[in-house]
């Protein structure tokens, strides 16, 4: 059976009402990356960072999967055990749609992490700098999110999957953030058929053998079905 590895980014959740980062009016037009998405920003002003992620957590809790997420759930159901979703998204919409084989390389809004002892637990809807770690008691709780300068999760397994993939698809990602931005080239060189499904050509469009441009809710179901 074909092994299918799919990278998703913020564009797949745009039609579920969640803002992307780099589109016009996106999250990075409203917040400074250095302030809300780096460990240094969190050390300077944890309350600001918690407010940013509390707002996004509240939006994600209310969000529902769109036709693109649902198509990927069908794909996994049809090819049980042979489809891996590697998501940069922290919103949990793939699981809500029914995908089980999901790797959260940039963490998840529903997770809390202790910066002192690395203990992880389910995040409350509202996190606060005064929260203490349920394991070690340190007041160092943070969202379980991978910020700039930190190493994304499960990388060893992800590189391995990319090398074994027969098909690699990148959906709804601008291709500006590494290491995810290198996955298309890596999988293609290892022999995978590579497909980009995005609203517009990403900066890495030349790494893909096939491209389908348009809204994810249209191009993803058309690719899957
Ligand atoms: C639609 C649509 C619709 C819209 N339908 N499509 C210099 C050179 C190279 C690398 C570096 C460098 N300097 C620093 C680095 C490393 C750095 C990096 O890449 N920086 C770049 C900015 C240059 N990377 C890191 O620090 C990473 N760690 C790392 O590299 O560790 C070292 C290491 C790794 C591996 C092995 C060994 C060592 C960590 C990166 C952490 C990123 N974190 C963030 C925020 C946290 C998560 C969160 O808060 O949600 O993750 S940043 C933000 O960008 C978020 C996203 O996951 C990520 C990617 O964004 P995405 O998903 O692509 O969204 P957009 O908005 O950019 O694009 C949306 C796309 O959708 C657009 O193309 C639209 O057209 C499209 N679209 N509507 C279809 N309806």
UniProtKB/TrEMBL annotation:
Alphabetically list the UniProt keywords: Cytoplasm, Metal-binding, NAD, Transferase, Zinc
Write out the catalytic residues in the record: 106 (proton acceptor)
Q: Write down the required cofactor(s).
A: Zn(2+)
Catalytic activity reads: N(6)-succinyl-L-lysyl-[protein] + NAD(+) + H2O = 2''-O-succinyl-ADP-D-ribose + nicotinamide + L-lysyl-[protein]; N(6)-acetyl-L-lysyl-[protein] + NAD(+) + H2O = 2''-O-acetyl-ADP-D-ribose + nicotinamide + L-lysyl-[protein]
What are the subcellular locations of this protein? Cytoplasm
Cofactor: binding details: Binds 1 zinc ion per subunit.
Q: Which family does it belong to?
A: Belongs to the sirtuin family. Class III subfamily.
Write down what this protein is called: NAD-dependent protein deacylase
Organism whose genome encodes this protein: Roseovarius gahaiensis
């Amino acid at each position: 059976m074909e092994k299918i590895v799919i990278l998703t980014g913020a564009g797949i959740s745009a039609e579920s009402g969640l803002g992307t980062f780099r589109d016009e009016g996106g999250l990075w037009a409203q917040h400074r990356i250095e302030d809300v998405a780096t460990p240094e920003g969190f050390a300077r002003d944890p309350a600001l960072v918690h407010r940013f992620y509390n707002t996004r957590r509240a939006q994600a809790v209310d969000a529902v999967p769109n036709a693109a997420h649902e198509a990927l759930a069908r794909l996994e159901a049809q090819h049980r055990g042979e489809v891996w979703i590697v998501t940069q998204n922290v919103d949990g919409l793939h699981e809500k749609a029914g995908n089980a084989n999901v790797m959260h390389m940039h963490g998840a809004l529903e997770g809390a992490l202790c910066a002192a002892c690395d203990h992880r637990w389910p995040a409350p809807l509202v996190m606060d700098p005064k929260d203490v770690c349920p394991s070690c008691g340190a007041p160092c709780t943070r969202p379980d999110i991978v910020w700039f300068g930190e190493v994304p999760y499960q990388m060893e397994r992800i590189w391995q999957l990319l090398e074994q993939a027969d098909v690699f698809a990148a959906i709804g990602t601008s291709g500006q953030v590494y290491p995810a931005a290198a996955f298309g080239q890596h999988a293609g060189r290892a022999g995978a058929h590579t497909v980009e499904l995005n609203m517009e050509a990403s900066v890495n469009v030349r790494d893909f053998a096939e491209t389908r441009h348009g809204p994810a809710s249209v191009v993803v179901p058309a690719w899957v079905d």
